[in-house]
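Re-run requested by the PI after the first attempt was lost when the workstation crashed. Everything re-entered from the original request form. Ligand of interest: flavin-adenine dinucleotide.
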Amino acid sequence: MSKNLQTNWDVIIIGGGAAGFFAAIRCAELNPKGRILILEKASQTLGKVLISGGGRCNVTHACFEPAKLITYYPRGGAELRGAFSRFQPADTVAWFEERGVRIKTESDGRMFPVTDDSNTIANTLRFSAKQAGVRVGMGISVWDVAKSPQGGFKLEVKSEAKSQFIQTKNLLFASGGDRKSLDLVRKLGHTIADPVPSLFTFNIKDKRINDLAGVAVEDVILKMDSLTARGPLLITHWGMSGPAVLRLSAWGARILFDKIYASTLTVNWLGDYKLDATLEILQRNKDWHENARKKIATHAAFSQIPIRLWKQLVHFIGDKNWADVSKAELKKLAEELTAGEFKIQGKGQFKEEFVTCGGVSLKEVDFKTMQSRVVDGLFFAGEVLDIDGITGGFNFQAAWTTGWLAGSEVG
Ligand SMILES: Cc1cc2nc3c(=O)[nH]c(=O)nc-3n(C[C@H](O)[C@H](O)[C@H](O)COP(=O)(O)OP(=O)(O)OC[C@H]3O[C@@H](n4cnc5c(N)ncnc54)[C@H](O)[C@@H]3O)c2cc1C
């Protein structure tokens, strides 16, 4: 360590990410005399904030009802219900606006700084922490943690080749999905749900979607095991992506991990159309005299299905006119359109956005205070918890909310 750290602290926060900064600022503003230290092993703080949202930082989502907001969290929704009644997206927006950051809402509900630059968010957090008197140690890794016999915690911290022992009354883990840090939490007596990826695209090799990369369908319903997701779907070079797929990947993160990312996906290309209604429409197309001599491949029955996709879905019927399509073929087509089966053969990455599900078991945390129910003086905030949201600003909102709650109590 180039400079030795002061030995005694009131609060040490492990992790200089969104949750750690939010907690530290709140705590320091409530306790102006508190000795509060953030330890960050990377050479700069707020690394994920900087790269988030394609460099724009999708800071939260314009959903202001806690009951609705929790439906965007495959894990942690129930626990966050009360937490969101105390600090929710409207509070996030107000928090940043009080500090001079204007936030805008895009048509899909995602919220960004008007500058479209994540530096605006990172710099505001850094400046607010400095103003409040928070100390930040960068390039310092927390190597080991133990309960101290005199109360509080003893930490072994390392930087370059040097190590040092420091002491704190209260300890807050805001260490994200870092596995080594989860081991430290486990060592303190907590149960950890194994981290597995959430939010990914599906690898699917299937002739029905071959060479269709870029084709999108506005409203599909996807099913896998007992899970359902609805929304736009995008065909890619490797398979399927888009909001409906990402949602299903988040809800099915554990199931798919256990199945080594091999499963059957059922696609209703027509949203909530049922088999019978679809068959009726197909039959009417066949019976309609103007259609009789038109090719089924080039005259789609449903405008919501792009013609290139339609062609491949009806390929099994061959080069027939509508009038020549058999009843059995129509039935098979109705099945294909409302419940087409595809084999998921692996997962791909959604942009660079890598979110883990898993982390500290939520049963062992009091969500009023974010304090451990197992160890006195120990707190948690952010992705270190077994909480994750779907894409759209929900993961940062969980970090702000749990950070704010922890910061309100940890001092
Ligand atoms: C590319 C990308 C884009 C994203 N975009 C969005 C988005 O636009 N909107 C959204 O809501 N979510 C987004 N996410 C998810 C979001 O970034 C995370 O949910 C959020 O950053 C979690 O914050 P955190 O503070 O809990 O953890 P982190 O941001 O991971 O911070 C934890 C910090 O702790 C440090 N640390 C860990 N262990 C130790 C240790 N032992 N000693 C010292 N330091 C330690 C780590 O180095 C890290 O800096 C994105 C994620 C990625 C990867």
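Saved to the shared folder this time. The mean pLDDT is 95.
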